[in-house]
Design brief:
Elements lengths: L3 H11 L2 E5 L5 H11 L2 E3 L7 H7 L2 E5 L5 H16 L4 E4 L7 H11 L5 E4 L1 H7 L19 H11 L2 E4 L4 E4 L4 E4 L12 H13 L4 H20 L5 H14 L2 H7 L2 E3 L1
Parallel strand pairs: 1-2, 1-3, 3-4, 4-5, 5-6
Antiparallel strand pairs: 6-7, 7-8, 8-9
Helix pairs in contact: 1-9, 1-11, 2-8, 2-10, 3-4, 6-7, 8-9, 9-10
């Protein structure tokens, strides 16, 4: 059985080049998170070069947070290029339930076979076609409420679905597990969830997507726990979190990861 440290080592040794079509709020923290963890981020979202860059990247993450028509076009072209070349890519359907525009873009992106879908409970419920109670990018639903929808979505799309929250739930439609790592300060720092999507892409590019996603979430949550030991609030938590990502060893990850059978 592969341990979390094996996945972390594989990702850090490969230092995969991950193209991130993310949102304005997330770009800086996302790039810093990925660098601290050992991946190589590229923030490429121009319609004129999006698909071309996908062809040279090791993986792709797409976050629809600050969506517009040009970015949507780039996202679709990049996702299509990743699908055609069988490169791993991760979809983060931010606030998909808020507008018809977001729903239509997400539906088009789903046609290009994301390797992993990562979102909060309300986003996964909305993406699976169920009724969700999200408020913008925030979830008003519990993770448990989205588990059946996540399984159905994973089977229908042959993908891994990660529902993130206080205790995460990850499934590929056949296997499922929960991750109990994390800290309440994490949602108090804007775009930490968005940044996680890029890290999941880095692990999916260098590991089995299901097990790599489990490791990415446990590693991320453990870093949050470590950062909270010295932070006095959200302001001091962010730099402590980056330091924790950088400093966690494989041995510490194996000891601290709380990956539980579902």
């Amino acid at each position: 059985m592969i341990t979390p440290s094996d996945h972390l080592k594989a990702m850090q040794q490969a230092s995969p080049l991950i193209q991130n079509i993310s949102n304005y709020v997330a770009m800086n923290i996302m790039a810093n998170v990925m660098l601290a963890a050992g991946a190589s981020p590229a923030m490429v979202h121009a319609r004129e070069e999006g698909a071309d860059f996908t062809r040279i990247a090791n993986g792709l993450s797409i976050n629809i947070g600050t969506l517009d028509a040009e970015w949507a076009d780039c996202m679709v072209q990049a996702a299509k290029a990743a699908d055609e070349r069988q490169k791993p890519w991760v979809l983060d359907p931010v606030a998909i339930g808020a507008t018809a525009f977001r729903q239509n873009v997400a539906a088009t992106l789903l046609e290009h076979q994301p390797t992993v879908i990562r979102g909060n409970a309300s986003e996964i419920l909305a993406l699976s076609g169920a009724v969700a109670q999200g408020r913008g990018a925030d979830s008003a639903d519990q993770v448990a409420a989205a588990e059946d929808g996540a399984c159905a979505l994973a089977r229908a799309r042959d993908t891994v679905v990660a529902v993130t929250g206080p205790v995460d739930y990850v499934t590929d439609g056949h296997r499922a597990a929960r991750i109990a790592n994390g800290h309440p300060l994490m949602p108090k720092v804007t775009a930490l969830g968005c940044a996680l999507t890029g890290l999941v892409a880095a692990f999916a590019a260098t590991n089995d997507p299901f097990k790599g996603t489990l490791t990415a979430l446990a590693y991320y949550g453990l870093a949050g726990e470590r950062a909270a030991e010295t932070a006095t609030g959200p302001g001091s938590f962010q730099p402590a979190f980056l330091d924790a990502l950088h400093n966690i060893s494989g041995t510490e990850l194996d000891a601290g990861a709380r990956i539980l059978p579902a």
